[in-house]
Prior knowledge:
Blueprint: H1 7-25, H2 41-53, H3 72-84, H4 93-106, H5 109-120, E1 126-129, E2 145-149, E3 152-160, E4 170-176, E5 187-193, E6 199-204, E7 213-224, E8 228-229, H6 235-246, H7 250-272, H8 278-304, H9 312-336, H10 352-360, H11 370-381
Parallel strand pairs: 1-4
Antiparallel strand pairs: 2-3, 3-7, 4-5, 5-8, 6-7
Organism: Sphingobium herbicidovorans (strain ATCC 700291 / DSM 11019 / CCUG 56400 / KCTC 2939 / LMG 18315 / NBRC 16415 / MH)
Protein name: Acyl-CoA dehydrogenase
Domain Acyl-CoA oxidase/dehydrogenase middle: 127-218
Amino acid sequence: MKLGFRPEDELFRQECADWLNDQMAGEFRDIKGITKLTGSPERRKEWEQQLAAHRWSCIGWPTQWGGRDATLAQQVIFAEEYARAGVPGRVNHIGIELAGPTILTFGTDEQKQRFLPGIAAGKTVFCQGFSEPNAGSDLASVRTKARLEDGEWVVNGQKIWTSLAHISDWIFVITRTEEGSRGPKGLTFLMMPIDQPGIEIRGIRQINGDAEFNETFFTDARCPADSLIGAVGDGWRIAMGLLAFERGVSTLGQQMGFRNELDEIIAAARANGAANDPLIRQRLAKAEIGLRLMRYGALRMLSQTDHSKIDGAALTYKIQWASWRRNLGELAMDVLGQGGEISEHAEYEWDTLPNLFLFSRADTIYGGTNQIQRNLIAERGLGLPREPRGNA
């Protein structure tokens, strides 16, 4: 495993850094440092289009579809420099990193023509309709149903935790299309326009004051018959392929965000004297070691993984970073002390480190709870027998 980058890749890194820093110091300086996903949504949609105009939006995609055919190393470098420059998270992360690669891999030529140009241009924002009230991390238990009627899919059911659904244009939905089916059988992957009478979106307020999550209700909502990806009943395979993309190059950019957070904690500890506490110093050192180990592990995962599949490394990575960052949030509050529990803002808004603590409580829940991840590691990674499940 090679842990460094070639000289030509470092030149590419400088190109990325120069462009991003220029943007954050210039036309888009007003969005630099925004941590809430719901902050300045219209300006961030404009930012998506600015990225697209300079072909930075989806650099790993083929040039035919608006990308740069960037190598894996270049994609990692861009993700790192993006986070290092203090640029806010992508409001179309779901479209760029999940929907787009899924369509590229499993979609028809007509579907690629229909969806990819809008995603690449930053004009078509996607959200994900997987989790349900009784099927959070257990995707095989979804109950939302779809039936074919007069050349259209008619969908009824409910999804939850649909990030940024309120500013999205499309949603991809796992539905049950075979009456009486259970588990992964009988599922179908549909692409649905959100702006229609049959879809209702209700925001969910989070403990950090943000409201990026939503409940999404489908009441005879419709989409064309050819809006399914893959075949009828092939939804489980498509969803597993999509989740493999989720463990892709964005992990290194995510870690650069973690780097920024840890650096801010260290700076706070030095400023208020907490760094003189030997236990705090020990925890800071442990966090530093953990972050470096995650980086090496992610580089190894990316260099060895067939990204159309989820392997053991990808299964362990989610539980590793989620647990590490939850602990980081607790460390941040211990460094800040009682002052970290008081917001200086008139409304319920928090600075970076208190917000880190509040949001990181969800890290071990969303995207697969730690408990579910352990089952996946055991069953799919180690080949152990499935956990007994009741009939309820």
